[in-house]
Each structure stands twice: as structure tokens, then as C-alpha cells.
Amino acid sequence: MTSLLAAAAFFVLIHLLVSGTRVRDALVGRIGEGPYMGLFSLASLAGIVWLSLAFGRARSAPGNELIWGAASVLRWVQVGLQLGAVSLVVLGLSTPNPTSVRQEAALDRPVQGVLRITRHPFLCGVAIWAIGHLLVNGDVASMVLFASMLLLTLFGTVSIDAKRRRALGSKWDAFAAQTSIIPFLAIAQGRQRLNIGEIGAWRLLLAVGVWAALLLGHPHLVGVPALP
């Protein structure tokens, strides 16, 4: 369990204390954008591998106590949440977005598609993924893993916004004024309108396909069934 806690802390802190802060700005100024991105990508990959291995070991460790058992209805809720999570991740990865790495030029385009729903679709998808898994996994190891991912995504959105505001100034402010971090908040506040047609049928079909594949493949990929 100690290794899992250390891996979770490492992965979260390199993002929250480096990636979106002035520490990043200083490092880029010293070594350049390309070398920084390469080193940070390697550190992130190492963190993911460490976290995955540590979680696998912690799941079967003696100290991994079950804090609560999930009711059957929560497992069905989890299935629905994962459809929303996967949809946001797929839409986020396939849509030009100024919050993504080296996609600042997307600020010159009108706000459309999934960006009307949230300007951080990928991170919001990961947050929903983590929340869903916390609902149905009551053991200590799972709580450490998924709570750390939830913490990273929630603070990560704020960190990215601050980084983009420093770099892009008024152009970013205009984009942020039209969008929201929380899904559908800008629409509810009248700053945006929902337009499903802009998202594209192929993206929606791809999202459902990925969700179904993960649902059916979960026992083989993770070792436990996703369906109740």
C-alpha cells in the first residue's frame, strides 16, 4: 500500500506542482519547450506504469480492507456513468481544443461541438470515470487510485486554465467567457447553446463503440466484470 500511495502522490504532484504552474514556465525558459515536453511525458509515463503496478499489488495485499460494499443499483449507475465518461473522453480527444497541448490555434475557431458542453471534455470524462469507480469499489486500494485521479482532474482543469490565461491573455478570456469547466453549466447559464449536430454522428457512434468494447472486455483487461 505504501508504494501505491507514493505512486499516486508522484503522479498527482508532477501535474499539479509542475505542469500547470510557473515552475513549468521556468523550466521551458531554461531548457526549451521540446525538451520539457519530452521529459515531462517520460515522467508521466513512468508515473502511470508505477501507479498501475502498485495498484495491482495493493489489491491483493493484506492491508487492502473493504470499507463498503456497493449495492447492485450502484453498479448499474456506474455503467451509465461510464457511457458519459467515455463519450466525453472520445469527443475531447477528437475535437480541436485550446486547452489541449499545442492546440492553442483552436482559439481562432468558433466555439462548437463538445466545447459548448465543457472546455475540458477529456478531464471531465476522467473525473466521471473516477467517480463511477469510487461508487462501486469500496476497498482501500481502489479509493487511493480513483480518488487521486479525481483530485488530479478537478485541480487540473483550474491549473490548465491559469496556464492558458498567462500565455494567451485576452483571447483566452474571451473563450473562457463562452465556455465552462462543469459540463452543461455554460448552457444552463445562457452563455452557450447545445448543438448535437456539431458534435458529429461518427464521434457519438465511436464513443458508444468504445464504451461497449470496454464493458465487454473489462473482465479480460482488469480481471473483474463491469456488469452487475
Automatic annotation (TrEMBL):
PANTHER family: 15-CIS-ZETA-CAROTENE ISOMERASE, CHLOROPLASTIC (PTHR35988:SF2). It comes from the Bacteria. Keywords: Membrane, Transmembrane, Transmembrane helix. This is NnrU family protein. InterPro entries: NnrU_dom. It is a multi-pass membrane protein. GO terms for cellular component: membrane. Residues 4-225 form the NnrU domain. GO terms for molecular function: 9,15,9'-tri-cis-zeta-carotene isomerase activity.
